[in-house]
Every structure is written in structure tokens, then in C-alpha cells.
Amino acid sequence: MSRWHSYINSAATCIQAYTGTQPLQHFLKAHFAQHKKFGSKDRKYISHLCYSYYRTGHSLPNTSLPEKLQIALFICNETPGEWQPLYNEEWLEHWHTDPTKKMQFIQELYTTFRPENIFPWKPQLSKTIDANSFALSHLVQPYLFIRCRPGYKAIVAEKLAQNNIPYTPLLQNCFALSNTTQLQNIINLNKEAVVQDLNSQQIGSLMQMVADAQPKASHPMKVWDCCAASGGKSILAKDILGNIDLMASDLRPAIINNLKARFKQAAINHYTAFVADLTQPLTLIQKHSFPFIICDAPCSGSGTWSRTPEQLYYFTEDRINYYSQLQKNIVQHIVPKLAVKGYLLYITCSVFEQENEAMVTYIMQQYGLQLIQQQVFSGYTQHADTMFAALLYKN
Ligand SMILES: C[S@@+](CC[C@H](N)C(=O)[O-])C[C@H]1O[C@@H](n2cnc3c(N)ncnc32)[C@H](O)[C@@H]1O
Questions:
Q1: Is 130 part of any known ligand binding site?
Q2: Which of 227, 263, 307, 350 to mutate to test the pocket of ligand 1 (most atoms within 8 A of CB)?
Q3: What positions does the domain SAM-dependent MTase RsmB/NOP-type occupy (predicted)?
Q4: Protein residue with its CA nearest to atom 10 in ligand 1
């Protein structure tokens, strides 16, 4: 058996053992730790096969797993490259860079192939999203994006150049890099630059609106990042709003520890961090009110599935209702903490209307907040995540 066929078999073994209950990345890491015979190249090829498989969603029913893997590779790779020995002349002739043409070829060979099942939830999308481009975006891995922190852009650019790392400058402070780039030993992550998706960075434009509305020389604004995770939006807020009185919370204690470590690297020393379940009444900050609350809500994550295609594969539609209800429960406890003349920045990395525009309508109707701006930041044509953000105001 050729090396390439044995990769297909190894990937098939992984796919059969994987149940979707943990990130694929973690599963593969543990699998390779258990099976030491795989060298680093083998791990790379097998992982690539697995990821390609999940990228095609449920478009290939009634096809054997090795065949599915071969088709997935064909659809997801722009060129056959090293995988060429797996394919006959006819397939190689149809190896276009345009995935739509390749899918037409597959449809002729496999009548059960359903490309519409790569992303089957098109009716649920936010209206401004181009459903076809979005579905196709799952076939490729997005870029790695970094945001240079204030004062460090030239230093970061110089370090990347010194290490011969190619990058494309975008926006004011964003660099796009190949997704295999290793930055750990090259730049001071979190201090000089943060790893942050292009559209996560774009949400800064709504934070800038809050900054612009602040009277000059006022006290540091009290900002609560209420679903902070490891603090990506907090650091962005700090960089845009400057001297803020920052409070960050999240449901999970481990993640708050990560946030503290990251803030240390980011030289953010003055802040308060605490654990809070926002589906429950808040006791810790009973007396506080905030002129700015950032709610980067837990969501389906559907705008980021081209990074984690196993989630695309294992998603079920009932989860949209689950997340929308969770978001309502969270909003219920944070809106009362918003000061009069305060701003709520509601964010998701979801593409579903029910988690996005419909949630904004709900917040406006239920709590009387006024909409300043809402936007889908689409990433599907830029090898980036798709995000949604709405800035609301309390009169
Ligand atoms: C989209 S992530 C936040 C990402 C983060 N803002 C960033 O920029 O990196 C959503 C966060 O909400 C947290 N979360 C989920 N359920 C929650 C709850 N009931 N109360 C508070 N936080 C919750 C999750 O732990 C998760 O870290």
C-alpha cells in the first residue's frame, strides 16, 4: 500500500473514533500521543485529511469513508500537490482552482453528492450574508491575523521581515499571515501584538464610536467585558478607549486565570476580574452601573467554523434556539447594569439571524434600548471569521 493510501486509512480510523465532544485539534493531539509511530509529517498529512473531511459537512452520504476522504481532499485543495498519486488522470484533469467546477465533476461521478449539505442552514442566515460564498468558505482554512498594539506596528513589521515571514497589511494595525506561521519566538505576543481575527478587530470601529462620544478629560470610563474569555475584546477596548476602569468576568474560573496571565503579558495591570454566571442574578457587582458593557455572547460560533469544521459537521439546528435563549438569559442580567446614557456592545461570532439581528430587536423591545448601529462583518471572502456586532444606547 502506498504511503498516501495508508494516510487515508489512518485518517479514517481517527474519524471513526472521533465523536465531536472535544475540539478535533485536542483529539488528534491525544491520538498521536498514543500512536507514537506517526512522525511530524505523518501527523500533518493525517490531520489535513481529517479537517478536509469535516469541511465537506454531510454532502457525501452513502459513500465509503476512504472515498469520502479522497473526494474531500479533491474539493478542498487548490492543487493536487503531493496527493497526486491518489488520483487518476481524469480527476487530475478536473482539478480546477474553482471549487464549484470540481463539485460539478464530483456530482457527475457520485449522484448522491449534495453540495448544498456542506452548510444546510441557509434560511437561518443573517440576511446580508451571501449564502453561497459563505458555504464555500468552509472548504478552506482561514488566515492567521494579528493586531499590532499601539506603538508596536513598526517593531512587529521589522521582526516579521527579519525572520522572512511574509504578511499582508490590512486595516490600520492588522497583518494577515499564513495559518501555519509560528509567532511565539518572534514577537512578544499580547504585548506587541495579539492574535485576533480580522473581523474581531473590525469590531473596534464600534468601540471607537463610544470613545468619540466621550467628553474629553473625563474620568476613566467604567467598562465591563462581561463574557471576557481570555480578554481579546478587553485588550481591544483598552487600546481604543485608552485609560479605562476595566472589569472583566466570565463563567469559567480557568478562563479567568488565562485572562490574568494574558493581561500580565499585555501590561494591563489595573483591572478587576471575577467569575460570574450571567444567567443568574448578579450579587458581586450589585451597586455598580457601567457606561459601557461589552457582551461578546456565547453563541453557535457558526462564523468561525472554517477554523473548526468539526463543529460544522456536528451542529444541529436546535442549538440555534439553545443559544438564543442563553443570550436572552444573559442580556436580562446585564442590561440593568447599564448606566443611563450608557452603551451596550452586543457581539457574536454567529451567522444566524436569530442570534444576531433578532436578538437586537428583542433587546430593543424588551429593554427600550436604542440601536446606534448593527453590522455583519463578513469574513467569507477574506479568509477570515464572520462576526456580528450591534451598538445599543440607553436613554
Ligand atoms: C465568545 S466567547 C468570548 C470571547 C472573548 N470576548 C474574546 O474576545 O476572546 C463567550 C464567553 O462567554 C462565556 N460564557 C458562557 N456562558 C456564560 C454565562 N452563563 N455567564 C457568563 N459567561 C458565559 C464563555 O465561557 C466564553 O468565554
A1: no
A2: 227
A3: 132-395
A4: 298
Alpha-carbon distance of 116 to 211, in angstroms, equals 43
385 labeled part of a ligand binding site: no
Selection from 222, 233, 241, 388 nearest residue 301 by Cα: 388
Which residue has 481575527 as its cell numbers? Answer: 197
d(CA 255, CA 229): 6
**Ligand 1 atom nearest residue 329's Cα:** 19
227 close to 278: Cβ distance less than 8 angstroms = yes
* Of the candidates 53, 39, 33, 30, the residue with the CA atom closest to the CA atom of residue 3: 39
- Distance, CA of 120 to CA of 118 (rounded, Å): 6
Cα of 373 to ligand 1 centre, how many Å?
22
- Full set of structural domains in the chain with CATH: 3-118 (no CATH), 144-195 (no CATH), 198-393 (3.40.50.150)
Q: Which tens digits make up the pLDDT trace of 180-223?
A: 999 999 999 999 999 999 999 999 999 999 999 988 767 899 99
pTM of the model: 0.96
Percentages of the chain per state (helix, strand, coil), in multiples of 5: 45, 15, 40
Burial label for 246, CB within 10 Å (0-12, 13-18, 19+), is buried
Q: Which residues of 116-140 are buried (b: 16+ CB within 10 A; e: fewer)?
A: eebbbbeebbbeebeeeebbbbbbb
CA distance 100 to 78: 12
